[in-house]
């Protein structure tokens, strides 16, 4: 049987004893920053899974919601710093979207800290590893999200 | 006919609830609905009717059909033990179950999931003493006192319930708690009869239907009437989802961990994708046709095939339709 | 028949007689409540009514009347929806004759299996920003008292949304009754693979509602059409109001109030985006 | 599995053959059911994607099962991507096939259009195998272009075994010497006793409409005309309601309908 195209982002999340699972959507520029973290030997927690996207502004907030539903404990968007960017608008859009999404999540009772935006330039591998470690420990404190189970349980 | 005192009924309900085998009407979030209960106190015996019909216990919104594992092959997961007593169903909704029986269990193919659930759930109906404004069960004779399809019929009199045993399964339940029931005396029987007469008389809608006339609906349908309603219709599926008799289902394959699963769940003939084929062809492309199909199916095709109406007059679709499409109008015009 | 009703009928009749419009979309009485009415000849205007049961947003039907001149009976929120539709290039202002009626709020619907049929204003009407449509060609004055709106402020935080969503049957009545959900293919189904399954699974309901909320953010005119048609009474407008509050706080933008300011975070082709500089040198 | 009619039996694809540009014929084995009538259909599942109805296009005498599948939606696309050895699910046979009883002793005209030849192929092969029971067999078949003719490589064999085959295409291609035009233009070619011929037709709804009209004009008896109609199906056993039109379920009472039954069907599904 062929591998039928994987339907869910959640398939990428491996189930093990609980450690925060974090999905990071990295834009092209910042993903080279993430790569650089690897080259230069900066350590960052292995439970961050990066998905490279052309620009942070193409990340539809629906996908962030879907990632959370499918089992991610937090979603991280790394974007170019607005001040360093030739085109400012995309990062501003991302920023606005994330802010809106956080408001929405807060309203429905999901901790807003689970959706983050991180400004990473292409040469900031060190910053990335430092910030991500911080985020992982913060998410660890928040505990597992388990949105699906929460939706199933409440009657 | 038997009778049972209210306090004795409580004892039975509490016993069932403690076994986690009681589904009864409760008020949740501002409306009545059926729910599996742990404590019998929550039951609202004064309820009007549940907004979501009890069909969801027999035909769930989403149900696993089978699982397929490329390594192990097809596996059918046995359903969890669903043994329960569905208490307090209105006679109209109970009648819907008997119509569903004739459709879904029609040979040669019997729907195994429905049959399974039907076997494991005992239905106790509770006569309707305060019919709602939208109700028209008297039209199809599915209420308000007794319907068909239930195992026991309870009719509330003062402080006492008249109990009518309808099936052997109902009798078995009565036998289990035999001490709590009493034989009904002549006075009770008389009272019961009076109540029945009064309740049927109280239903204030003046709809009369003639089956012979109604089955011609399909041919004699007034185009303008259905076009007018179609213009209003917003194609939400409230009417089908809240209909105790709508049984159409959709199936869908999903990917689960290392296996594929097929689920089935409610579908609605009002949706434009209901008959649209992959090639884009749609034999029922217009909204008016879909509405006509819905009404014809209920009012002329099921009567033709099964000697029962496909509508039981609960009035859910009438009340819940956001744009006021009213099956009673159809009945008045063609009934 | 109340005075505004009479005025409304006369107005609709004259519009149809003069041939200004082909159809007037309004409300007519049904057996238990009111329902939409499409009057296309003058005699049909006798059916038009106006009362506190007129909940459905008629702007929802405008997309079915492309390139036809229609008159529409509009409450304040219906008018806001029309404004949004014009802004989003869904309808042409020239094609619509807005018959604005002064609205003093609509009643919460009495639905099947409702324990206490106590008639009161809906929550979203108590938050109403405009009792009269922001765009209008004709105005029908109401004799009811037009109360002041309550101070704005989100209050969606205190509800247990998860258990509210859990009841959802996903009948899509909220989508189908919404004047602004005009997409021919809903994005929730349009993604490949789809974001949620076709068959309602309780664990996916949160995603469905959050995605819909995100799509309504900054567009929702809080007409309550979704909420009043919902068979399980999820107070969706409260959720969307919460997001609209975000737009008001951050951009001082309220959807549907006027045709003028373009919606924030929407850029037209060729427009210079703030500090956007595209310099090839 | 037993009594559950909704669960397909896993079978393996043993052969995939390209029929036309967008159509493949897959052969699956083992056949999960004993007997069937030509014209019946089966529900084919591609696990994880979905299920769709396909008419069986191999004769009942064949130990394997064949389906001709045109790439249309998600299930058909998935099957097109499948290769030999893959497992798919089949359940069936469902519906009412061609009226073999009525055909006995009579001559038979089959009219197909495009992929509509698929449900007719088992009938052709079945009739040829039992030639003594039936009269003359004629086939009129049309497709949009010569390259879209199904079962092209079998035609010679059919003719050799006595089928009066007439082909037509809507648009000719280089090297095409046959008739150009829609299938109704060749309906008068087979020389049969029109009053006593059973006609079976299958194809797109528009084609069926015009073929039926033409057949009646040509003097074929309405009593003897049958057509196979298509509709969306989910369960195949008359429960899900998707193929419920008028008082008929296409999956139970069809897909083969008599002329008189088609008159009763509501507009849309009815070819008239």
Would you write up a description of this structure?
Chain A has helices at 28-39, 61-70, 89-108, 125-142, 147-153; strands at residues 22-27, 48-53, 74-79, 115-119. In chain A, helix 1 packs across helix 4. Chain A is globular. Chain A has a four-stranded parallel beta sheet. Chain A has a single domain, classed as Rossmann fold (3-Layer(aba) Sandwich). Chain A is an alpha/beta fold and 155 residues long. Chain B has 335 residues and is an alpha+beta fold. Chain B has two domains: 2-202, no CATH class; 211-334, no CATH class. Helices cover 36% and strands 21% of the residues of chain B. In chain B, a hairpin with a 2-residue loop joins strand 2 (22-28) and strand 3 (31-37). In chain B, helix 9 (223-232) crosses helix 11 (287-306). Chain B is globular. Chain B starts with a strand and ends with a helix. The mean pLDDT of chain B is 86. Chain C is an alpha/beta fold and 281 residues long. Chain C has one domain (3-251). Chain C contains nine helices and six strands. In chain C, strands 1, 2, 3, 4, 5 and 6 form a six-stranded mixed beta sheet that branches. The N and C termini of chain C lie far apart (72 Å). Chain D is of the alpha/beta class. In chain D, 19% of the residues lie in helices and 31% in strands. In chain D, the strands form three sheets. In chain D, strands 10-9-8-7-11-12-15 form a seven-stranded mixed beta sheet, sandwiched between helices. Chain D has a six-stranded antiparallel beta sheet with strand order 4-3-6-1-2-5. In chain D, helix 5 (205-218) links the parallel strand 11 (197-202) and strand 12. The mean pLDDT of chain D is 88. Chains in contact: A-B, A-C, A-D, B-C, B-D. Chains B and D meet through strand 4, strand 11, strand 12 and helix 11 of B and strand 4, helix 1 and strand 13 of D.
